[in-house]
Design brief:
Largest sheet: none
Distance between the termini: 54 Å
Length: 579
């Protein structure tokens, strides 16, 4: 068979055309926006943008101060979140602390909440009169709150730690669960003390998990926009995310695009360093003779350590919700003097309250934003999961196509390196103006969906690959022997088996999109209202009760969807059968 005949035979396979379509869509969602972002900084309209940002009298305010703020917040968030998450994981998995399961469930809640929920709760309690407006609860009680605790890098970092320690907790807890009891028992037989076992055996075994938790928390802390905007901007504390938003929102787009590229490079370099630190090292703890992890008996320290763990999760998972609920019922902001009211939930327009702004459940703008948020979450979840599933099908059907595997793998992973605000800037740079046959999409619902799918690709792709990877090829081979064709095999065998895994991934993508602000903050317009952006606007304009009420609506949607996801995850566990 000649080369041309082979090419013709390959071209006739439907899976080849499907592979080409998947690569084209990934290129449109990932490669094209990033290329447009870079191109916008070197075109004729961007003359001097790089020099202005990197080496000019404006560089300090444009780049170096925000970069320092981002690194300070990112490193603080990564380090503290790893310590807190690692400690809670150790208590839940490795000790005999009471009520461990409940503690573990509560420790996973903060990440399901919007980051600005905890920031608004912090502001409700610790706000002082430095920037004007109604002081918080502590100041209202006559307690002097120092400026460094109310505004700036300290509250920003602590709030992000309270939100992102769940990442480290989940990663480290999974690693600790795989530390076999035989390994710990062998160390104890040598006469090693508990401290020596913990520091010489357990800690090195979970080193990669601790590093992964740090890197995830650092990357999220650097790219987070909502928390620095709410607790930092009032005192002019800038990070790269807030500086980027300020540049683009004020029309200084080319310099903003340069900052977006810098933000991508910073996040990528940190993740690259983290990967190189663990490359070539072995941390194997699962062996053929492994047993369950042995729990450490804490003795007299059992209750003190348990109380410390409970204080951490209650303060981060329970107290913010209570504070937000209470604040929405106060007639006067941050004070009990005015009594309680349901006006901020169901009240009609009253010029004597909140400048006539209606309660959130009766405000047509908020209702529209709720519909838009749910529609965006569903659209992104469906689009991301379908694209991830198609990519997994292609890779499964063409296992020897190395170039295809490399291309799909890179395009599916790159969005993880791109912070949300930078990704939004990339979509504005490429799709915000007409490009060839493509019209301008800025201000449309479609650009929000496309940006959301691009941001969700890494998770959707990995979830789909895991779901398809659990289906043995032997099932497909058996169906082939019965004469079943490809579409029938997929519809009757593969799809039912992977449906729950895909649905689980879709729910988690939905949760992330509903509570996310960073990706959409540059893309939302009055024609495309979203709850997250409405919360940010209300908080920025001083309508605290309204902002907190909308935040609770977002949190309720996210928590319900998360519970559904956990239910689906339990449903994917293999059932035990008996004869």
């Amino acid at each position: 068979m000649t080369l041309s005949q082979r090419a013709l035979t390959v071209a006739r396979r439907p899976v080849v055309w499907l592979a080409a379509a998947v690569v084209a869509v990934l290129g449109l969602l990932v490669a094209l926006p990033l290329a447009g972002l870079v191109g916008a900084t070197v075109g004729p309209d961007a003359d001097g943008a790089w020099s202005d940002v990197l080496a000019s009298p404006l560089s300090s305010a444009l780049l170096w101060e925000p970069l320092g703020g981002s690194l300070l917040v990112g490193l603080g968030t990564g380090a503290l979140a790893t310590v807190v998450g690692g400690f809670l994981a150790w208590v839940v998995v490795m000790t005999d602390a009471p009520w461990r399961r409940t503690l573990g469930a509560l420790a996973a809640i903060p990440f399901a909440l919007p980051s600005f929920a905890i920031a608004l709760a912090w502001e409700t309690v610790f706000r002082n009169d430095l920037v004007g407006g109604q002081p918080g609860l502590l100041a209202g009680l006559g307690i002097a709150v120092p400026d460094w605790l109310a505004w700036g890098p300290v509250p920003v970092t602590l709030t992000l730690v309270a939100h992102y320690y769940s990442l480290s907790f989940v990663v480290v807890a999974a690693a600790l669960a795989n530390v076999g009891g035989d390994v710990v028992a062998a160390a104890r037989l040598t006469g090693a003390s508990r401290w020596r076992v913990a520091t010489r055996v357990v800690l090195p075994s979970v080193g990669p998990a601790l590093l992964s938790g740090f890197l995830l928390a650092f990357a999220e802390g650097v790219s987070n926009f909502a928390v620095p905007a709410l607790l930092g901007l009032p005192v002019r504390f800038q990070t790269l995310s807030t500086r980027l938003y300020g540049s683009i929102s004020t029309g200084d787009t080319e310099r903003g695009y340069v900052l977006a590229i810098v933000l991508v490079v910073v996040a990528g370099m940190v993740l690259l360093v983290g990967n190189r630190l663990t490359r070539g090292r072995s941390f194997s703890t699962i062996t053929g003779k492994a047993t369950r992890a042995q729990r450490t008996r804490l003795g007299a320290a059992r209750w003190p350590l348990a109380m410390l763990a409970w204080v951490l999760v209650v303060v981060t998972a329970v107290v913010p919700g209570i504070v937000l609920v209470a604040s929405t019922l106060l007639r006067r902001t941050h004070t009990l003097d005015g009594g309680f009211t349901l006006h901020y939930w169901v009240g009609d327009s009253d010029p004597d309250i909140a400048q006539g702004v209606r309660g959130v459940l009766r405000d047509p703008v908020v209702v529209d934003a709720l519909g838009g948020t749910l529609a965006l979450g569903v659209s992104v979840a469906v689009g991301a999961v379908v694209l991830g599933a198609l990519a997994s099908i292609v890779l499964r059907a063409l296992p020897k196509a190395r170039a295809l595997h490399g291309t799909v793998g890179v395009l599916g992973y790159v969005p993880f390196l791109v912070p949300g605000v930078a990704l939004g800037a990339a979509f504005i740079a490429q799709l915000g103006t007409p490009t060839g046959p493509l019209p301008s999409l800025y201000g449309t619902f479609l650009i929000l969906v496309l940006a959301g799918i691009a941001a969700s690709l890494p998770f959707a792709f990995q979830t789909a690959r895991a779901a398809f990877g659990q289906v043995s090829s032997e099932l497909d081979e058996a169906a082939v022997l019965t004469g079943a064709r490809g579409p029938r095999r997929f519809g009757r065998i593969t799809l039912p088996l992977v449906s729950r895994g895909l649905a689980n991934g879709g729910v988690l993508v939905f949760v992330t999109m509903v509570r996310d602000l960073s990706v959409v903050v540059l893309l939302v317009t009055p024609a495309t209202p979203l709850l997250s952006m409405q919360t940010f606007r209300y908080a920025s304009e001083g309508f605290t009760q309204h902002a907190n009420a909308i935040t609770l609506v977002i949190a309720a949607v996210a928590v319900v969807a998360t519970l559904l996801s956990r239910r689906l995850e339990r449903g994917t566990e293999p059932e035990k059968t008996t004869r």
